[in-house]
Amino acid sequence: MIKGILTGVAALGLMAGSALAQDRVVNVYNWSDYIDESILEEFTKETGIKVVYDVFDSNEILETKLLAGGTGYDVVVPTGSFLSRQIKAGAFSELDKSQLSNLSNMWKDIEARVDKYDPGNAHSINYMWGTTGVGYNVEKVKAALGEDAPVDSWDLVFDEANISKLKDCGVFLLDAPTEMIPAALNYLGLDPDSKDRGDIEKAGELLTKIRPYVQKFHSSEYINALANGDICMAVGWSGDVLQARDRAAEADNGVTVEYAIPKEGALMWFDQMAIPADAPHKAEAHEFLNYIMRPDVMAKASNYVYYANGNKASQELLNDDVIGDPAIYPTEEAVKNLYTVTAYDPKINRIVTRIWTAVKSGQ
Prior knowledge:
Elements: H1 2-22, E1 25-31, H2 37-47, E2 50-56, H3 59-68, E3 75-76, H4 80-88, H5 108-114, E4 124-137, H6 138-145, H7 155-158, H8 160-166, E5 171-174, H9 177-187, H10 197-210, E6 216-218, H11 222-227, E7 233-237, H12 238-251, E8 257-260, E9 266-274, H13 282-292, H14 295-305, E10 308-309, H15 320-323, H16 332-336, E11 338-339, H17 346-361
Parallel strand pairs: 1-2, 1-3, 5-6, 5-7, 9-11
Antiparallel strand pairs: 4-7, 4-8, 4-9, 4-10
Pfam family, one: SBP_bac_8
Protein name: Putrescine-binding periplasmic protein
Function: Required for the activity of the bacterial periplasmic transport system of putrescine.
């Protein structure tokens, strides 16, 4: 009888072990429209780890959840300037690099730039990077402003003489004060990374002047709006605008969308994959990051979202219209004009939030 009981206990143990193996999971929280979903399916097929995938559309939403704690997420994707503040708040685990054999594939130049946000790249890996510039409908902008429309300049956005003429065909701005305020500062000839209250108020005044001509402050709606010809200009992220360009081309709807990195300079940003300090499945999170760092996987991701990535080894696998497009992988000359920004401290952040709320409300 005892032998039978022991056999039953052993069988139960095997069943439990099997169930645990089947129940391995990684909870990922990423930006919307930001991965080829077949990557997730193939990861599960190879590892047996189920991916529970949720999306957000602003850094502010992610940060609120992270700082409150207990998100249940194992991998999240903050932008560099937010990441640095969150690291200081203890929101992330340090990576166990012994579990990340594919780190050698990463691009040293990008890691060097990310170092200002995550010293030693101790808490994160780069997923994608890009620029914040101007997407526009070629025909509509020319119709409104003429053949010599300043499509390569922030004048298109910040000069009332121009943006006022685009009001009727539709203008969207990013609902992202940490990107729009630096852009305004840069246009005014001020340091885009300024933490001076007076400078930030000047940027707010400029944004308030152009507010009457803005149809909407958006996160990702501009992709379809540009592609469908519903709007003629948007300040947006490089890859999003290029997705709109390609959707318009595929639809053959008479809409031509282009993306410009303004000649005065533009923000260079980095979206980083990191593991929250209270992540429930850290081993699975490391497996996911290591998988993402495979050259074939990262190339597949970039070929889908039309963003540059921080994986040097992936470049030989990128489509020609990705690696060969200076809007995605800018020229060395263009890179010289790209700026980066750091996080606002809590006091300045409150001022920025107040100014941005006033800009959006038009008051």
